[in-house]
Design brief:
Layout: H1 2-22, E1 24-39, E2 49-52, E3 60-71, E4 74-84, E5 100-107, E6 111-119, H2 121-129, H3 145-148, E7 153-164, E8 167-174, E9 187-195, E10 199-209, E11 216-228, E12 231-242, H4 256-261, E13 267-281, E14 285-298, E15 305-317, E16 322-335, E17 355-366
Antiparallel strand pairs: 1-2, 1-3, 1-17, 3-4, 4-5, 5-6, 6-7, 7-8, 8-9, 9-10, 10-11, 11-12, 12-13, 13-14, 14-15, 15-16, 16-17
Length: 367
């Protein structure tokens, strides 16, 4: 009798353990991307550069994400993600060790609230509805619109997202943490999107405060895409406006040195138009063409400038997780935008002359 009781108790405990395990999950994921790259006008003498890149179409990364059900359609979620250079193995020097690190609560009816270092609403809305190269995740490679977004990630952020059918709304606030000046260093963001099977539309806004004087860096964007039988066409508009005195961000993602490399504090306004088309063939081949046109109104007339950037990508899947690719880009810079790192913060080199040609071949594996 006693033995039967013990066996029954063990059976109940085992059943409870299985149920608990079934309600929680942890996933390890990542991307390893390596490429050989060629770039013209990589220095003031106009010399070319050939080297192994720190990544390729994507930044290399590894991450851990988790989900635990707490009942009633609610769950606790978290994510940790690090990005690193494939050619050297070092952590991406343009960001934190953990580019993404957050924990939050997801409900079946009220939406999702997350706290930590995470993507801003402008990056989220564009990625959902009008990204360049839609089969690729946003990162700091050749995607010039990211500069106009004020980067991808922000620290000290509370973000709330609500979905209703195909509609998505998002708002965020990154705390500045400056004693006596609550708004200094803070970031306020909001975005809305319609994510349809054929049509995607999105709009977003960011207001970033200087961490030393409260001056504004304001950005807004809108755009859309049309998808039909493997073809996607997209259009986007991005604008930045800086108040006099703006120069530092408490919550990143850019340091003062990176802002200088981007020539981000040279302007009073920057406007960018983006357009592109991508074609998927037999679900294993991606072809795309992208164009960006940027206008800069400088703080002085000498800091005015324009840029036109073109990109062609061919990407062939070898398996469900591995692909090889070729990428070519050509940029034309005028006036103060010569030397600005508009092609992406992780570009091999900003253009030191009025034009720049870049080429890249690589292999990428996802797990």
């Amino acid at each position: 009798m006693r033995r039967a009781y013990q066996l029954g108790l063990l059976s109940i405990v085992a059943t409870m353990s299985e149920g608990a395990l079934a309600q929680s999950s942890v996933t390890l994921y990542g991307t390893v991307d390596a490429s050989i790259q060629y770039l013209t006008h990589a220095n003031s003498a106009g010399d070319s550069l050939t080297k192994m890149g720190s990544g390729g179409l994507s930044q290399s990364r590894f991450g851990v994400s988790g989900n635990e059900s707490i009942g009633g359609g609610n769950s606790v979620i978290f994510r940790l993600e690090n990005r690193f250079a494939t050619n050297t193995g070092v952590t991406d020097p343009s960001g934190s060790f953990w580019d993404t690190v957050f924990v939050g609560l997801r409900t079946s009816t009220l939406g999702t609230l997350t706290l930590g270092r995470q993507t801003n609403p402008m990056a989220d809305m564009a990625a959902l509805t009008y990204p360049s190269n839609p089969w690729l995740p946003y990162d700091y490679k050749f995607q010039p619109e990211i500069t106009l977004m004020g980067g991808i990630w922000s620290s000290n952020m509370a973000k709330y997202q609500f979905r209703y059918g195909r509609f998505v709304a998002e708002t965020s606030y990154a705390f500045g943490g400056v004693a006596g000046h609550t708004s200094y260093g803070s970031q306020l963001g909001a975005g809305v999107a319609y994510v349809g099977a054929i049509v995607g539309l999105g709009a977003s806004y960011l207001d970033i405060k200087d961490s030393t004087n409260g001056a504004d860096s304001k950005a807004w964007s809108m755009g859309g895409s049309l998808t039909w039988q493997g073809t996607q066409a997209h259009l986007g508009y991005f604008e930045n406006r800086l108040s006099p005195g703006f120069g530092t961000w408490a919550n990143g993602p850019y340091t003062p040195l990176q802002l200088a490399a981007l020539k981000f504090t040279d302007f009073s306004s920057r406007r960018m138009f983006s357009a592109g088309v991508s074609q998927t063939l037999l679900s294993s081949t991606h072809l795309s063409f992208n164009y960006w046109r940027t206008f800069q109104t400088g703080k002085t007339d000498r800091q005015n400038g324009t840029a036109s950037q073109f990109q062609v990508v061919a990407d062939q899947s070898l398996s469900r997780r591995t692909d090889v690719y070729l990428e070519v880009n050509y940029s034309i810079y005028r006036e103060d935008l010569i030397g600005a790192q508009l092609q992406g913060i992780n570009g091999l080199s900003s253009a030191q002359k009025g034009t720049q040609l870049g080429m890249m071949a690589g292999v990428r594996h996802q797990f």
